[in-house]
Amino acid sequence: MVHGELWTLKELFVYPNEYIYWSIQIVMYPFMTGLVAGAFVLSSLYHVFGIKELKDMARFALVFSFALLFAAPMPIVLHLQHPFRGAYVFMTPHFTSAIAAFGVVFFSYGAIVASELWFLYRKHFVEVSLPLKEKRDKGLFEWIKFLIFCSLTLGVNDISEESLKRDEKAIRILAGVGIPVACFLHGYAGFIFGSVKANALWMTPLMPVIFIMSAIVSGIALCMLTYIIVMEIRKIKIGSQRKPWMTSVEEVKGVEINVIKITSKYLILFMIFAITLELLDLIFRGYTAVKHWDILRTVIYERDFTNIFILQYTLGNLIPFIIFLLPGLTIRRAIVGLVLALMGVFMMRWNVVIGGQAFSLTLSGYMDYVMPIIPRNWETFKEGLFGALSIFTMPFVLFWIIAKIFPVFGSEKKPAAH
Amino acid sequence: MITRRDFIKYSIQGIAALAIPMAAPPFNSPLSKGGLRGVPSKLSASQNAKGIRWGFLVDTQKCVGCGFCVKACKKENKIPYDANVSRTWVERYVVTKDGNVLADSPKSARDGFIKNDPMGINLKKEDIEKAFFVPKLCNQCENPPCVQVCPVGATYQTSDGVVLVDRKWCIGCGYCIMACPYGVRFFHPVYHTAEKCNFCYHRITKGMKSACVTACPFGARLIGNINDPNDEVGRIIRNERVSVLKDEFGTKPQVYYLGLSKEVR
To answer: Which terminal residue of chain A, N or C, has fewer Cβ atoms less than 10 Å from its own Cβ?
Structure first.
């Protein structure tokens, strides 16, 4: 069977070779890179712009961004017909292609996040490795721990006040450089679509900007959501132990809602940017009404109406918008708002990627995407629901592992009173 | 201890030494734009100032929709016979008296158009205003968007204008398929790499005609070197009223059509 035939339903006049070649994994790809970029921008709000209230969140967002970074290229790899040739993109990049920039941008961004993390956690590495170094008769586990942390220090054990100041400066610079690179990482994902002149829905110079804005929305939303989950687990842990020297549940609660309230303001801000641009694009297309508008209109207002206007704009944008603007935000309400906002951004990606292939190049036919649910073979797994779900769970598993080395919160001990 | 003066001196010498191999790539990258297999691009460009440029001419007035071209293409280029993809296909357009345009290409027209049932609708002869067939194939664009977007350079344009795919290097991302405004590209069901019409490059470079041209009993398909002043295809393109498909994309297609109608997509 031809690739794409399995999940494509053709209607009216469609060219014989046309199928929905870019399916769920290509929806996941900008969604995941968007989360990376968004999480990084969120962490930079504290490091660069000095928004103090976000200190806790900034650390968390940076580690999460690192975890997401490893998951971001996975959808593309799964989508490739020759996944083992994926490295050719780095080996023989053909620079007139937007995808060829991937290697350069991805690795420079990765290097920035990794070095920023190193500066941020250097003190922690030294504090873990030094006592272990001095300790005699280490057990096997301690040996492994020592080796990991000792190598992570890169041989720098100086944690004097002065050197930590220098670290902070380095973090600020890296976070500052990281913002444009993160935007570029995602902007070019938008460019991949926006520059396809053959596709009437994709071709707009606004595409990279729209992608960046919605990326930040999704990144912030996912960070907030994961933050809430982690905090809830923390509360349960503290509640079950009840030691006098530990932070009390009330204190954690207070911190949690405060951080969520402040972060949600930024979420709303970027959501406004994203919606404004998207609506501008839509209005402009309708107003100029060039050749392909006839078919685009039927796709946008009729065939994809539920996906675009109900799931994306109403449930994914309008309702979270109201939820976060109404006074007296609670954690429970925030969770609903965040899940909806994430769903909204996912639907935006879906409507761009799948919606862009919902009509034929003939401009007189349609294609419907029927996502494979039950994985009957490798292809229906990787280009189906379960492939997408595995990609989505990947960063959480990675985060869980990475957080063992980069603890996102300090210890549960109360800070010494000043 | 190296002195400052020496340091500067050695640096300049080092840069100068590096500059020599840096100047070489334009002459030894075989398949950079315009290069013909193994022939350095700059050299081939100068030899090929008015060399070969393959062009194709489709006379839609002569096409009867028999589908021999599609059959021949599938066999010649080993595209699985029953797979619902093809390097070339024929479209049928039927305009009814009430102004409806019905268009289709069942099985890429491999078996021809036997029944009078455009898009599965049984039409009476008296309801039809006009009807015609339009063969389609890769336009071997002068400015090919598929080549532009390939992230690994696995698809490239030869100096004689044909766009080829390297099956050993294609990673199968599908970007070229998305970038082609004519929908000529697809994934090969066996090799799982991007696949497209290449004017039967293995034939035309050996003095033969493309399989579809040879198979067409009515002379609706012609191929030739449009740079050759004595070539028939070139002469018709220069002297007669020809058109191309979707020129608004700026791809500069090199498949020319005689008798194209406004309904053609």
So the answer is: C
